[in-house]
UniProtKB/TrEMBL annotation:
Residues 36-329 form the ABC transmembrane type-1 domain. It is a multi-pass membrane protein. The keyword Glycoprotein does not apply. Its main location: membrane. Keywords: ATP-binding, Membrane, Nucleotide-binding, Transmembrane, Transmembrane helix, Transport. GO terms for cellular component: plasma membrane. This is ABC transporter. It is found in: Cell membrane. PANTHER family: ATP-BINDING CASSETTE SUB-FAMILY B MEMBER 10, MITOCHONDRIAL (PTHR43394:SF1), ATP-DEPENDENT PERMEASE MDL1, MITOCHONDRIAL (PTHR43394). The keyword Transport applies. The chain crosses the membrane at residues 79-100, 165-190, 267-288.
Length: 602
């Protein structure tokens, strides 16, 4: 485990050192065609947008020079004809500008939506493949922040920011070139502020980057607090802790506000500072260009074009502040998303197929040892043989390692030493999905999804018919209470099944396992949240569904497992007793003591 953990640290360090934009471009190689199409439309739209000042200069040239104008030199001496050509060119340019504005807006937005969609699915898929230890070290709210808010932040930048950067670059290149062609003597004055503006923009990037990274971190903590509180709203209300939770939320929200304020304080200063640089270029051109026009060094038409173009060149640069503000937020979010995608999957998926119909269900634990990260071993050199089709029970005190055995069998965690086999095959070599497909788990912590009763019973058996769903519910002794619900099997159970009682949720979970019809059934405290009457009903259903099926029952209530083929008593990660119910009572050990306490005997 130590080796895996250290290698992760090295991988993470290497990935973090790569610029987030490069990581995003590497991810987005599949979208190159769409990117170039959108970029081309942005460039053409900007070319059309920059054309009108040129037309104004030509119009001024026609007014001043008339038969000696630029158009007249093409052979059209008539003034009316010259203005007719200008009007025609103006119409064409404006139409093309509108067409390409529609095109680039549609292309960029669709590209942003596609990347957002694919990135969210890829991130979620990768998240599902990570081992449970990853989730234990992170909050649900923090992960939700990455899957939702961070990906949305990237989408917002792609919507408009990428187009803005391309169009500003196009503007600088085209207008800069025009300046040096039309009036090279004053062009350098107009262009003088641009290197300082670009340098200032990148300098701002370097300063803003850590501030926005802190903003993304703070919003993750805030989302984590909100998600945690909404999940525990019943506990909050029952302990009248509303004011306490509001104060805790206020701390997280204030930290987020302060973090944003630090970034805003710096980013808000960008435009005012850039305006001062723009003022230098605009004033220089206005003054020295005007003198050059009076002296006849440049034409009046050229001077009017330059005055219009200098505004088109310099004022859009003020928008770079807002654009790079979006960019920095997007890059901070990109880093978080890419770090998730780059998290290595430590668990090998296996490559040996396991056809469901061929599974007999013989399970063996061979000298296994396991410890959760940073803790002492929970399981110590434990061996256990479970014959196919038999029912075994594991009992013991809380923390003795009973549920950990289940997690190891399902490969939620990997053993540190030893081996677990199914029908003689090492489960680490079996295909992970095949392994889990042949095991049905009924846990004490039943999770129902927001949806109908029928949808929850059919979860995992998505092609099940209505008849099969009802049959599974009858076997689980759930049909009677389901039909008494307002909409029967179509009743919405609410988030986590909150509209149902604990016993009802438990029976739906059993019906779900029945419908799956697995060769191996695991009952992890399956009757822990029910009353005696419901327990008796569940017990009747379990007696039916465990016939000729390998069953592992973990229980505190010994009455539910007394008929098991063999019972194991577990303490401190080891089996201290084993036998049938009667044999264990005769041994007069730990099991017998527990039985006397639960049955009221002394």
């Amino acid at each position: 485990m130590t080796t895996v953990f250290n290698s992760r640290q090295v991988v993470k360090k290497d990935k973090d050192s790569t610029h987030p934009l490069k990581r995003l471009l590497n991810y987005g190689q599949q979208y190159r065609k769409e990117f170039w199409q959108a970029s081309a439309c942005s460039i053409i739209n900007k070319l059309m947008d920059l054309a009108p000042p040129g037309l104004i200069g030509i119009a001024v040239d026609v007014v001043v020079k008339q038969q000696d104008s630029i158009i007249a030199q093409l052979g059209i001496k008539d003034i009316f004809g010259q203005f007719l050509i200008l009007a025609f060119l103006t119409a064409i340019i404006w139409i093309l500008e509108s067409i390409f504005e529609y095109a680039y807006a549609r292309l960029w937005r669709n590209l942003a939506q596609t990347i957002q969609h694919d990135l969210r699915l890829d991130a979620y898929k990768h998240l599902q493949d990570l081992e449970l230890a990853y989730f234990e070290e992170r909050s649900t709210g923090g992960l939700m922040s990455i899957l939702s808010d961070d990906i949305n932040q990237l989408e917002r930048f792609l919507d408009t920011g990428a187009n803005d950067i391309i169009q500003v670059a196009t503007t600088v290149i085209i207008i800069g070139g025009a300046f040096f062609i039309v009036a090279p003597s004053v062009a350098w004055m107009a262009m003088l502020p641009i290197p300082f503006i670009i340098w200032g923009t990148f300098a701002y990037q370097d300063v803003l980057a850590p501030r926005y990274a802190d903003v993304r971190e703070k919003v993750g903590l805030l989302n984590s607090r909100l998600a945690n509180n909404l999940s525990g709203i019943t506990t909050i209300k029952s302990f009248t802790a509303e004011d306490y939770e509001i104060s805790r939320l206020a701390v997280e929200s204030e930290a987020y506000r302060r973090s944003n304020a630090k970034a805003i304080r710096l980013s808000a200063a960008y435009i005012p500072l850039i305006r001062m640089l723009i003022l230098v270029g605009f004033t220089a051109l206005l003054f020295y260009g005007g003198l050059a026009a009076v002296r006849g060094t440049i034409s009046v038409g050229a001077y009017s074009v330059l005055v219009f173009l200098i505004q088109r060149l310099l004022w859009p640069l003020t928008r770079l502040g807002e654009t790079f503000d979006q960019y920095q937020r997007a890059m901070a979010s990109t880093n978080r998303v890419m770090n998730l995608l780059d998290t290595p999957i430590a668990m090998h998926p296996g490559d040996v197929p396991l056809p469901l119909k061929e599974v007999r269900g013989e399970v063996e634990f061979k000298h296994i040892t396991f410890a959760y990260q940073g803790r002492q071993p929970v399981i110590k050199n434990l061996s256990l043989m479970i014959p196919a089709g038999k029912t075994i029970a594991i009992v013991g005190s809380t923390g003795s390692g009973k549920s950990t055995l289940v997690k190891l069998l399902l490969r939620f965690y990997e053993v540190q030493s030893g081996e677990i086999t199914l029908d003689g095959f090492d489960i680490q070599k079996l295909r992970l999905q095949d392994l889990r497909r042949c095991i049905g788990l009924v846990s004490q912590d039943v999770f129902l999804f927001h949806g109908t009763v029928a949808e929850n019973i059919a979860y995992g058996s998505f092609d099940a018919s209505e008849r099969e769903i009802i049959m599974a519910a009858k076997i689980a002794e759930a049909h009677e209470f389901i039909t008494s619900l307002p909409q029967g099997y179509e009743t919405i159970v609410g988030e986590r099944g909150q509209k149902l009682s604990g016993g009802q949720r438990q029976r739906i979970a059993i019906a779900r396992a029945v419908l799956k019809n697995p060769p191996i059934l695991i009952l992890d405290e399956a009757t822990s949240a029910v009353d005696n009457e419901t327990e008796a009903a569940i017990q009747r259903s379990l007696e039916r569904i465990t016939v000729n099926r390998t069953t592992i029952a973990i229980a505190h209530r010994l009455s539910t497992i007394r008929n098991s083929d063999r019972i194991y008593v577990m303490e401190h990660g080891k089996f201290v007793e084993s036998g049938t119910h009667e044999q264990l009572l005769e041994q007069n050990g730990v099991y017998a003591s527990l039985w006397r306490v639960q049955s009221g005997l002394r």
